[in-house]
Design a protein that fits this description.
alpha+beta, 12 strands, about 40% strand, elongated
């Protein structure tokens, strides 16, 4: 009776097979991670499938138009919103405002469902708004004398904030012909304590005096 021969196991071949299996598993894992990363990236940018776009639009209507901006106001449709000056040109059902670094991104929908997308330069608009707020105030003529055919005025200007006064302008009306108007620019000096001296080139009847603040902001006084 013949004895069966024992088969020897080829250990290097076993290790090689295990290495190949591990390599395949690792490859599948890496591919899966890359696919998931790409899907997440597309989701964040509002791109990709309709489902991903729907996810972005759940938070706001116009986010996809301003992908690199942050939402400031979702419903800026009345004066309770501090950026209402960007949305008050007409009546909107929706007005979303986004911070786009140097610009404001604005998405609107009016009462007829019309959508508009635009950008406004941020810093100039903010600067103008703050300047107007600072320069709101009152003008009062404290003293007025006609000397050598010229009005010399003492004027008091009080503003809500620090507002540099750049000049004064007076409007004259002809008493006999009220429709006739003329403007006269004054030479002026600051006297301190909100007081100014100003000199006009004539002694015509003054019906309005305007103090010119920073950036051309007008502070008017109508004289009856």
């Amino acid at each position: 009776m013949e004895k069966k021969k024992n088969k020897k196991i080829n250990i290097p071949s076993v290790f090689m097979g295990m290495f190949v299996v591990i390599l395949i598993i690792l490859l599948f894992y890496i591919v899966g991670v890359l696919v998931q990363f790409r899907e997440n990236e597309m989701l964040e940018n509002g791109a990709g499938s309709p489902d991903s776009r729907t996810h972005v639009e759940k938070s706001s209507k116009f986010a996809s138009y301003f992908p690199s901006c942050g939402l400031i106001s979702k419903n800026c449709v009345n004066s309770s919103c501090d950026k209402y000056f960007l949305c008050n040109d007409k009546k909107y059902l929706t007005c979303e405002i986004y911070d786009c670094n140097e610009d404001f991104g604005i998405g609107t929908m009016d009462e007829n469902g019309k959508i508009e997308i635009r950008k406004e330069i941020k810093y100039e608009r903010e600067l103008v708004k703050k300047r107007i707020e600072r320069c709101r105030g009152t003008v009062e003529i404290i003293d007025k004398n006609c000397i050598d055919g010229k009005f010399e005025l003492k004027i008091k200007v009080v503003t809500e904030g620090e507002c540099e006064i750049k000049g004064f302008v007076a409007m004259h009306k002809n008493i006999d012909k009220p429709e006739e108007k003329s403007w006269d620019s004054a030479d002026f000096n600051s006297l301190g304590e909100n007081l100014y001296s100003a000199k006009l080139n004539n002694c015509k009847n003054i019906t309005e005096i305007i103090a010119i603040g920073e950036g051309g902001v007008s502070i008017k006084k109508i004289i009856e």
